[in-house]
Design goal:
The chain contains 11 helices and 14 strands. With 367 residues, the protein is of the alpha+beta class. 31% of the residues are buried.
């Protein structure tokens, strides 16, 4: 046993690679993967595991944006060298080593811009379904602005952007992120496409900046008869497009700059409040008792199963879907979840899914 322990120690020193720091303007995004590989010896197993870990981590990342079938198509189009070229660092979070077996949990850091490039080229199709909302992340704020008939977004004349950069700095948690406004951002969205932007078109930005939500703010400033700032706020995720109309009227002594700043602070506070509520909900759900049940998904096509699976994946109380069998008409699975059966049932029906509860199993299908 002693040689194996020494070998394990040496591997920890050699392979616990820390992600390379980003230089100015570089966007990085992390993804976890678990590997279990057997080789000729420990070194061979480790080498194979690292290559597999990079591919698996990339697949896990892409699965957040698209269907498993489309993700596999992207992975199949790339060899190990192409995947490695997108990696900026790998960290070994846990590992177990024997004479010819290597098991580990890895955190792989990818170049966010290169991931965005995959999406921009159409390699990843339109996302469908839901993102795992068990972790509530940061907000990427995209501030569009209109005044006197002039509509702008990334232009230097847009006064709404510096106001939001300042508001983001005031939020101590760092949950408000404003895009760089460089060529990569311009290629994803501009003033003309801002109003019609959806999660599919904005997906490259969620990867580039590592956010869970995008908040599009379309502000319109009018001078007369009173100074008024009207803001259409859209919070966009994979499963929802929440729209609010906000109106801010200037006080008698308030300038345009002060009005914009007040509006930004108010919106930032509401986003922070919303995040706090969601985190409390997630904490409450995930703190519940662990349960499991048999769930049968009634489907008509593979696409319909993909949609049902994605909607189930958005539910924070579901820890894991364990697939048992798949046929053209039905998918059998075990749902591992936290909380009560009633809370799970309510959450499923809230996703516009039809649910029939039988004594020994449930049946779910499109509403």
């Amino acid at each position: 046993m002693r040689p194996i322990k020494i070998l394990s120690f040496l591997f920890c020193l050699t392979w616990a690679v820390i992600a390379v720091p980003a230089w100015a303007g570089e966007a990085l995004v992390n993804s976890e993967a678990s590997v279990d590989v057997t080789g000729k010896d420990a070194a061979d197993a480790r080498a194979q595991a690292m290559a597999k870990g990079e591919a698996d981590a990339l697949a896990n990342l892409l699965n957040k944006l698209t269907t498993p079938e489309q993700t596999q198509s992207v992975i199949d189009s790339m060899d190990a060298n192409k995947i490695s070229s997108m990696v900026r660092g790998t960290e070994v979070l846990e590992e177990k080593i024997s004479s010819n077996r290597y098991r580990a949990r890895l955190m792989v850091t990818f170049d966010g811009d290169q991931i965005s490039g995959l999406i921009g080229k159409g390699a990843v199709a339109t996302p469908e379904g839901g993102v795992d909302q068990a972790t509530v992340g940061s907000f990427l704020v995209i501030p569009g602005y209109e005044e006197d008939g002039s509509v702008m977004l990334w232009e230097e004349a847009n006064p709404w952007i510096p106001v939001w950069r300042a508001a983001g700095l005031e939020v101590a948690s760092g949950d408000i992120v404003v895009p760089y406004g460089d060529n990569a951002d311009i290629s994803a969205i501009d003033a003309k496409t801002l109003a019609s932007a959806n999660y599919a078109s904005l997906a490259p930005l969620t990867i580039r900046y590592g956010v869970s939500d995008i908040v599009v703010l379309q502000a319109k400033f009018t001078h007369a008869p009173d100074m008024v700032l009207s803001v259409v706020k859209r919070r966009i995720t994979r499963t929802q497009n929440e729209v609010n109309l906000l109106t801010y009227r200037a006080d008698p002594q308030e300038t345009k700059e002060l009005l914009l700043a007040r509006a930004a602070r108010d919106i930032a506070d509401s986003l922070q409040h919303k995040k706090t509520e969601e985190l409390e909900t997630v904490k409450m759900v995930h703190g519940g008792e662990r349960n499991d049940l048999m769930l049968l998904a009634s489907i008509t096509t593979l696409h319909s199963w993909t949609e049902v699976r994605a909607k189930l994946a958005t539910l924070p109380m579901i820890d894991r879907l364990e697939l048992l069998a798949i046929s053209p008409q039905q998918v059998d699975m075990i749902v591992h979840y936290r909380g009560s059966p009633d809370s799970l049932a309510n959450a499923i029906t809230a996703q516009n899914l039809r649910l029939v509860k039988n004594p020994n199993y449930w049946v779910v299908s499109h509403d």
